[in-house]
Design a protein that fits this description.
28% helix; alpha/beta; two-stranded antiparallel sheet; DNA Methylase, Chain A, domain 2; Rossmann fold; globular
């Protein structure tokens, strides 16, 4: 995939298994230059390219990629790589789905650390589900981490909850972090975590949004007016904090007018609407197998659904707290911590896959901003 190359003095990172770019956005907001990303899903990569037009986009299988090739294809030959970041596919480790030690995607976790050894970045940051630390799979983690050179300092796995970083969701993930002490100042796990938490709830995420109609089925119908009534950490990141070289020109121009994409409706049967209306906040719909969101609560972990090779199943979506319907892609994006100017695929299936598979940008920004403070300038090393 063609991308515009660019030169910047900011510390450079490569995002592996980049998806739509939740981790990339956090890195860019933290001050890093997302020089390149690698993704095997062409649809996800296309959306990443819309939001990161200056990044080099590589449609490649990480398992067949060498460190030397990655550096060359990223345009970084002769340039030090500051960070290798990524979220290897986690379906084989997830406690929610069908866990399988034979899932080929499990091997991709190991390939991430192989590429750490082959590219020697100043630091690495890898995300996965907490289930990867279970007794049945911890040996895979230990084997993968053994590939990291002995010169690196490896912190114990860090389990984080997205709500601590300002995202109104209970999503829990584990991060693996290590660094070269010659290129990064000493850093502890406590320094990576937020010193003070930001408490935002479902009501904060959905405030000012239009009442989504089932007839809004096309992408051109999904652009709707929103209202921003408050200014706080969460809302500031909804409409602003756009890093240099990041963002779709059209989306950025329209959000300046208060117009945002992703408000795609879902057509429910009369019986379904009747059931949804009767649900109390937090109650499970026995047929749809999803809960109604609580305005004064947090959103549960959003599911991603499956790609075409796994049956093309749409994810089960939470039920809106006040309307008898499931949430729209933009509402899901807000609950995950994405800004309103961030663009997703114009279909419900792919947009929910992209959102559900992503690292919350608020979590990514928090972690990587702490790491950025510890980067030793190459000119001073």
């Amino acid at each position: 995939m063609n991308s515009t190359s660019h030169t910047t003095t900011r510390p450079k990172v490569i995002d592996l298994f980049a998806g739509v770019g939740g981790l990339s956005l956090g890195a860019a907001r933290a001050g890093f230059d997302v020089t390149a990303c690698v993704e095997f899903d062409a649809i996800a990569l296309a959306s990443h390219a819309v939001n990161f037009p200056k990044t080099k986009h590589l449609l490649l299988d990480v398992s067949g990629l060498s460190g030397a090739s990655l550096i060359r294809k990223s345009g970084l030959e002769g340039t030090a790589l500051t960070g290798l970041i990524g979220g290897p596919p986690c379906q084989g480790f997830s406690l929610i789905g069908k866990r399988s030690l034979d899932d080929a995607r499990n091997d991709l976790f190991s390939h991430f650390f192989r590429l750490v050894a082959e590219t020697r970045p100043a630091f690495y940051l890898a995300e996965n589900v907490p289930g990867i630390l279970s007794k049945s799979t911890i040996h895979l983690v230990e084997s993968a981490l053994k590939q990291v050179p002995d010169t690196y300092i490896q912190l114990a796995p860090i389990v984080v909850v997205a709500s601590d970083f300002g995202a109104p969701t209970t999503r829990k993930r584990v991060f693996f972090f290590g660094y070269d002490p010659l290129r990064l100042k000493e850093i502890s796990a406590s320094e990576l975590l937020p010193q003070s938490t930001h408490s935002f709830l479902v009501r904060d995420a959905l405030k000012g949004l239009p009442s989504v109609q089932p007839s809004w089925q096309r992408e051109d119908q999904s652009w709707r007016k929103v209202k921003y009534t408050e200014s706080n950490y969460y809302t500031q990141r909804l409409k602003g904090h756009v890093p240099a070289g990041v963002g779709d020109t059209i989306a950025l121009s329209r959000i300046a007018e208060g117009v945002v994409s992703g408000f795609l409706g879902t057509k429910h049967s009369e019986d379904t609407i009747k059931r949804f209306k009767a649900l109390a906040p937090g109650e499970l719909d026995e047929v749809y197998r999803s809960r109604r969101l609580k305005l004064d609560g947090l959103c549960p972990t959003l599911r991603a659904g499956t790609a075409a090779d796994k049956g093309s199943y749409q994810a089960v979506r939470p039920i809106h707290p006040t309307s008898p319907r499931v949430i729209s892609p933009r509402e899901a994006a807000r609950l995950q911590g994405f800004p309103d100017w961030f663009v997703f695929n114009p279909t419900k299936w792919h947009s929910f896959r992209q959102i559900g598979n992503s690292v919350s940008p608020l979590v990514a920004e928090g972690l990587l901003a702490s790491i950025m403070k510890k980067v030793i300038s190459e000119s001073n090393s």
